[in-house]
Amino acid sequence: MSGLRLAWAVAPGGRAERRERAWNLVRELLAREGHADAGLSNACPHCGGPHGPVTVTGAPWRASVSYAGGVVVIGIHPDTVSAFGIDAERLIDPVRDAAGGIEGGLLRWVRTEAVLKADGRGLRGDAVVEITENGGQWTAHLPGAAGPLEGWEPVGPPGVLVSVAVSRGRRA
């Protein structure tokens, strides 16, 4: 879809190093769009800790971050949308697969998590996401959302499935 910028890199093992790598990628993409001085923050809306959705200030862009094993995947999207989220998962994950996989399948999981990130809920609660296929794209309906979210799977790093969700409606 138009406007999405995606980047990925190998992410070091520690939480602080992974976050630094992710934010550097976000800053690089924003700089390419002419916003090298944009600010980033990620205060959790529930507790205030530094693990919430990424917020961009000083640039007309939205950002989202996901980790898939040893890879960080980041995306930025013009703020012509009211919400934006990405999720990424390794196609082959021995730990996940040994535990029985993911109910509904990996594609459904990655799409659902992208929708919940875009909506701002994250994986809190028990919201049911309804997804309808639209020929290479999809539409998600989420109770309490301002409207449907649109989604698709862009080309990402080898061996990683990436889903993007955006809302063009007003925030709930």
Shape: globular
Tell me the series of helices and strands, N- to C-terminal. Answer: EHEEEEEHHEEEE
Task: Kindly report the spatial arrangement of strands forming the biggest sheet.
Answer: 6-10-9-8-7
Number of strands: 10
Organism: Microbacterium memoriense
Protein name: Chemotaxis protein CheY
Write a structural description:
This is Chemotaxis protein CheY. By secondary structure, the protein is of the alpha+beta class. It has one domain (about 5-165). It has three helices and ten strands; from the N terminus they run E-H-E-E-E-E-E-H-H-E-E-E-E. The strands form three sheets. It has a five-stranded antiparallel sheet, covered by helices on one side. Strand 8 (about 135-140) and strand 9 (about 150) form a beta hairpin. The radius of gyration is 15 Å and the shape is globular.
Give the helices and strands, then pairings:
Elements: E1 5-10, H1 15-32, E2 39-41, E3 55-57, E4 61-68, E5 71-78, E6 83-90, H2 94-98, H3 106-119, E7 130-133, E8 137-141, E9 149-152, E10 160-167
Antiparallel strand pairs: 1-5, 2-3, 4-5, 6-10, 7-8, 8-9, 9-10
